[in-house]
Design brief:
With 162 residues, this protein is an all-alpha fold. Helix content is 69%, strand content 0%. The protein has 7 helices and no strands.
Length: 162
Amino acid sequence: MSRSDQRPAMQARSVARLAAVQALYQMEVAGAGVEAVVREFSDHRFGSSLEDEAATPDAAVDQLADADEVFFADIVRGVVTHQAEIDTAVSRRLAANWRLERLDATLRATLRSATYELMHRADIPTEVVLDEYVELAKAFFAKTDSGFVNGALDAVARDLRA
């Protein structure tokens, strides 16, 4: 596969990561089940303009249509299936006076998605996971929060992939 052929596949995964963070946020805030949310994204969200999404950062890709839907579903289902293990890995790297529950729901979804990939997707290089989720954090949050995501994920990655 040439570099130009790889770019759309890489972009499709970036969009899938964004959608996974949105889906996990939606599940937490609305209390929706994993299969209902995966089905909603497949049936109604993929292919819609991101400008219609209130919680979507401006720097995001123009369309969810290009998302790798299989990869999206893997992340969302994987985070739910392995949430206790993921939360333990993330919580270990938070400051002593912080609990995961105190973080913003979108920030939690970001950390959980990235940690799932670090734990269960050995086919994806650590640097790719960190770069992708730090970029998502920059789009959603202030610079200090994206720095927090970078530091936390770097520590989690060292724990998991040492």
